[in-house]
Specification:
homodimer; 21 strands; eight-stranded antiparallel sheet; alpha+beta; six-stranded antiparallel sheet
C-alpha cells in the first residue's frame, strides 16, 4: 500500500485502537497494528486476544491513495513517531513487511510483520443489534463496574451481567460482598431475551474510547462474544461463560429505616473517618442517634476518629453498623442526584442505597460483623 | 501544648517538611513530624537522616496559643487528615504522646511518639553564609543535577561539587560520561575559599520547595553538612566526603568546528531519532554535511531513521559522531537561550555545548565509539 494522510487523523485512529495493545502479550504479532488500505478507506486493527478494536478512516479523509494493500506495523513505535513528528502530512509506503514513513525532513524504515500471520477476528456485525445512547451506556457501566470481583476463583463474577428483556436493559455486578444494579428502559423493544456477561476490565477499556454524547452505540450479541459499534469504531470483547448467580432476590423489598442524606457530604465524612482504618479491611462504624449520624473508626495502633453530621429527620431506633469504607465510597460516587436514601433493616442485614427520587440504580453493601 | 490554627497555614508547613519524610525509613520515630510550640511560634521538623527540614510558623499566624509544649505526630496521617478536613480552624491538644485534633464536627485521637526519642539535628545557622537569589540557585542546580552519577561505586560523583572563591560560584556534576558546569558571580565576595559536594538527590528534594523568585537563599556551610535558609525554612543536608575529581581540565579550550543551532529544534530531532534506539545505550548518530545536519539511528531489530535539519553556515569538514541521545537531550534542555553552539574537535573527543552569547554554562558529552 502507499498513501498520504494528515498526521492528526491517523494518530487519532492509532490512539483508539492501541487501547487493545498489551505490553504483556506473548504473541509477538499482536504488538503490531494491522493497516488494511482498501478501496473504501483504511482499517486499523489491534488486539490482545481478549479485546479487539478496529477503527475505520474513510477514503475521503485520506489525502492521497497511490495503491492499496496491507501490513502489520510495530504499534508502540509507530505511535511514538506520529506523536512526535511536527509535520502535517505523512507518507506511508509498505512493501511486504518493509515499511517506509517519510515527511519533508524525516525518513523512517521500520521492520513490519507478515500480514498473513495476523490472527483473524470476526468483526461482522449482526442484523439485530441493541441500540442505546452512548451517554446512557457509559452511566450503566460506570455505575456498576467497580463492584465486579477481581478474584479469579469465581471468574463469572469478574464481569457485568447484562439482561435484556422487551424494553428493559439491566446490568448487575457483584463481588459477593456488595452489589450494583442499574435498570433502564430501551427506546425500542428487543425481540429476543438476552442474558450475557462481559468482563469488567474489557468494559473499563471500552469506556476510555466511548465519548459522553447522545449518539448511539449498537451492541451486537453473539454466542461467545459481543461487538460494540459506534462512531467509526468496532470493539470486540469475549463473553464470560457460565451462569451468573441470581442475586436480585438478595435485595430486600421492605425496610425498617430510611435515612435521607446528601451523597457528597456522606462521602467526605466516610473518606475522612477511614484515614485511620486498616488498609485491607477498611472497616468504619456507622451510628445514628436521633438526628445525628456518627461515622467512626478505631485503630489500636493509630488511634480513633469520630466524624459527626446532622440529618434532617429524627430516627427513633438506634442504628449501629460496620462496613468496608471503600465499598461505601464507591457506591456513593455512583449517584448523580443531590439526595439519596439509605435503607436499613438490622445490624447483620445488607444496607441498600438508592436515589431519593429515581429507583433505577441500587447499591447493596453487606455489613461487617464486629465484636 | 494546646493551640488553634488555620488549617491552610499548618497544612502548608506540613507539606514542606514532609518532603523529608521517607516511607522506607527504618527508624520508626522518623515517620513522625516533630511539633514544638514555643513562645515565638511553632516549629515543624521532619527528617530522613539524610535531609532534615524545619518550618517555622510565627506566633502571629497562630489563632490562639493556650499553652506551649512539644510532640511527635504520625506524619502521613496528620497530613491526610488536614488535607481532607473541610473546616477553617483546627484545635490541636497534646498530652505526652496523646494527641487530640478537633473541629466543630470531628474528633481525632492519635497515638503520637515520645518527643524525647526524636533525634537531635543541629539546625544552628552560621555567621557567614553565602547569599544568592533563589531563582539563580534553582538555575544552577537544575542545569547540572541531571549529570550526577547514580552509581554507588563512586559515591562522590552522586553529588554536585560547589566551589566558591572570591565572587565566583561554580557548580560541577559528572557521571564520567558527561559533565555539566555552571559558573556565576556573587554580589558579595566570600572570604573563605569553599569546596564541598552535596548529594544530587538531596538537591532535587530542595528544588521542590525553593520557589522561583528573587528573594535570597542563604547557604551555611559546615565541615560535614550544609544548611539552606530561605523564607521560613531551614533545610539541612549532609555533605559527601572525599575529593571530587578535578574535571575542569577535561574541557578543551580550542575547537576545530563550531555549529550554531536552535536548542529546541535539535532537541526535537534527536528525540524523534532516538525512538528506535536501544533503551539502554540509546545511541544516535550525528552527521554534518555542508549545511545539513543528519541525526540517525539504526536498529537491526526495528529498522532505521534519519532526521534532517538545515543549519545556517556551511561546514567544510565532514563530521560523524555517535552519542547517548538521553545525555544530549538533558544537556540541550538546560539552555534557556535561542541559539547554542556545538563545539567539536574530532570523532573520539568530547562534544561541548555552550550558549551562543553567554559562557556561564558548559555541557560536555563524551562520544560513543561505534564500528
Amino acid at each position: 500500500m502507499k498513501f498520504e494522510i494528515k498526521r492528526e487523523i491517523l494518530l487519532n485512529g492509532l490512539n483508539i485502537v492501541s487501547k487493545a495493545m498489551s505490553s504483556k502479550n506473548l504473541i509477538p504479532i499482536l504488538s503490531g497494528i494491522k493497516f488494511e488500505l482498501k478501496k473504501e478507506g483504511l482499517y486499523l486493527t489491534c488486539s490482545d486476544e481478549d479485546i479487539t478494536i478496529q477503527f475505520f478512516i474513510d477514503k475521503k479523509e485520506i489525502t492521497k491513495i497511490d495503491y492499496i494493500g496491507s501490513s502489520v506495523i510495530p504499534g508502540k513505535y509507530i505511535i511514538d513517531i506520529f506523536r512526535k513528528l511536527p509535520c502535517d502530512i505523512i507518507n506511508i509506503e509498505t512493501d511486504g513487511s518493509k515499511i517506509l514513513i517519510t515527511t519533508d525532513s524525516s525518513e523512517y524504515h521500520l521492520n513490519g510483520m507478515e500480514v498473513n500471520d495476523y490472527p483473524h477476528y470476526n468483526l461482522n456485525i449482526s442484523k439485530t443489534p441493541v441500540s442505546i445512547s452512548k451517554k446512557e451506556f457509559k452511566d450503566i457501566v460506570n455505575q456498576t463496574v467497580f463492584a465486579v470481583s477481581h478474584q479469579e476463583s469465581r471468574p463469572i463474577l469478574t464481569g457485568i451481567n447484562f439482561k435484556i428483556n422487551g424494553d428493559t436493559f439491566e446490568a448487575i455486578a457483584t463481588d459477593s460482598y456488595r452489589l450494583a444494579k442499574k435498570k433502564i428502559n430501551l427506546e425500542k423493544e428487543v425481540q429476543d431475551q438476552l442474558d450475557f456477561v462481559i468482563p469488567g476490565k474489557n468494559l473499563t477499556e471500552l469506556m476510555k474510547i466511548v465519548e459522553d454524547d447522545d449518539k448511539k452505540i449498537k451492541i451486537h450479541i453473539f454466542s461467545n462474544y459481543v461487538l460494540f459499534e459506534f462512531d467509526d469504531i468496532l470493539f470486540l470483547s469475549r463473553l464470560l461463560s457460565g451462569t451468573f448467580p441470581n442475586v436480585s432476590n438478595l435485595i430486600p423489598s421492605e425496610f425498617k429505616i430510611e435515612v435521607d442524606i446528601n451523597p457528597n457530604d456522606l462521602f467526605n465524612v466516610i473518606d475522612r473517618a477511614s484515614i485511620l482504618s486498616d488498609r485491607e479491611k477498611n472497616v468504619v462504624r456507622f451510628e445514628i442517634n436521633k438526628n445525628e449520624l456518627i461515622v467512626g473508626c478505631d485503630s489500636l495502633e493509630l488511634g480513633k476518629v469520630e466524624e459527626r453530621m446532622t440529618i434532617d429527620e429524627i430516627i427513633k431506633e438506634k442504628i449501629k453498623i460496620s462496613f468496608n469504607a471503600r465499598y461505601m465510597l464507591e457506591a456513593l460516587r455512583s449517584f448523580q442526584g443531590k439526595k439519596i436514601k439509605i435503607l436499613y433493616n438490622e445490624e447483620i442485614k445488607p444496607i441498600i442505597i438508592k436515589d431519593l427520587e429515581k429507583e433505577d440504580l441500587i447499591q447493596l453493601i453487606l455489613p461487617i460483623k464486629t465484636y
